[in-house]
Amino acid sequence: MDDEIRKSIRGIALLNASEHDGKTRNDAVISKVMGSKPELREKIKEIIPIISEIVNEVNTITLLMQKSELETKFPELLTVKPKQDRVGLPLLDDAEQGKVVTRFPPEPNGYPHIGHAKAAIIDEEYARMYGGKLIFRFDDTNPEKERLEYYAAIKVGLDWLGVKYDHIKNTSDDMELIYRKAEEFIQSGYAYVCTCNKETISKNRREMLSCKCSFGDLTQNTKRWKDMLEKYKPGEAIVRFRGNMHSENTVMRDPTLLRIIDESHPIHKNKYRVWPNYDFAVSIEDSVDGVTHAFRTKEYELRNELYYAILDKLQMRKPRVLEFSRLEFDGMPVSKRILKPLVQEGKVSGYDDPRLPTLEAMRRRGIVPEAIRKFVLSLSFTKSDTLAPFETLESFNRKIIDPTSMRLFIATDPVKLIVKNNNLTEVEISNHPQKDMGKRKIRIDGSFYISGNDAKSLKVGDEVRLLEIYNIKITKIVPNIEADITDNNFKPEIPKIQWVPSQDAVKIEVLIPKILFVNEQFNENSLEIKQALTEPYYLELNVGAEIQFVRYGYCRKDSANQVIYTHK
Ligand SMILES: [Zn+2]
How far is the C-alpha of 541 from the C-alpha of 557, rounded, in Å? Predict the structure, then answer.
């Protein structure tokens, strides 16, 4: 047997031993060897004695020696091992390196928001952590609510977040398969077609009563299924899972599997009129897509029983379903039921209004995708609902944007200041205090604007420093503030204020998004608009540039005359 094979068996045995307190076993090593080196399967008879010999050798050395041999001779084996500390996510049960498949299944019925970001990032991080795959699947089986523009918006949002998927598909492309499964269900008696009205169905569910349809025979169900596809009207018939009307879990009281929706589908138009509901579609799709670990928010927890029951009856492979908590910011609801009217009534300017938790709004506001990812991964993977303070996301964002944010001066609610004995015509200022981001020249003539807030606190006789120029003493407050240069010495005790040259000042508006809902009431003052002046250099920055206005805060340039306040 050649040395290369011996060497790789020894590596596998060492790795297995080091993962099990220093002891490995023949069967564990055999299966790993066969799994990683399929070409050796034919030589299994020759190899087993060698494995057993190597296992014995490895078991006689200490755990410490095993680890050091692994590190020196087999470093490649150690690098593929998933590490919990990489992203702070707990390891998965039943997860094999290279074989984990996750999926992100949004319904294209709205704009993507922070909740989608959390799901997509967790799905992607797990796929990467295990060297597996991420499937991006539009769960589009409710034509009443879905629109092409939402498919596009979700895809744009995902790309912006930097989430990379291995495969993209639509559940609606599998309708033929879903119909076959529905027929299989009906044929085997695990489902029946119910023609009761909505009220009766709800009442029966509450009172744990079966309706007469559930006693119908196969002939009746087959006929009714055919009629569903062809002539029943919406609401006249549904396919119901034969669950248990006495179940403690209300989800299991003969839930709906398929219903009629006579609306044009964004992709398939009028090709189908019977559509699976969420539970039926998602369980079948996850199974056929090869998903190994399916994550969803914990509000679906009661639906797990149905998810598994559907796959049980269909004798299909079962993925492992895991829950995480929903992510929402305090006072910033993600629900379409709440956001849609705000947009329709014009209370916000659109789905990219910076007060909203949509990804488009976050982008406009100056939140960067890396910050969202770090933030999502920093939340513990608990099931308790996360009502995260927006400040936590801001602090991640600040750390990321600070090194690349251009420093500029701004005067909000500007007030004029005249320096009588000004003798300078130009100053040169660094664009960033630490990083080399170049310098800018500002023309000055002794006439400045300062912020209204700073002006308010000035009294005759006060000495202040105009940042980067000189110290001045206030000589007059009304009608205009006037001052004289004192000197240019460093004086730690005097206030230092920023300024804008009045001759080249650029007029801008600062949009300051505030909390959208206070005590579940729309906050009429959730958007503050401040008039401000800034330096001419502002005009040279691209839209999208992140600026730190000195002594004010971080803002993103939204247009030639508007910035959006990102955070302090
Ligand atoms: Zn019925």
Answer: 8
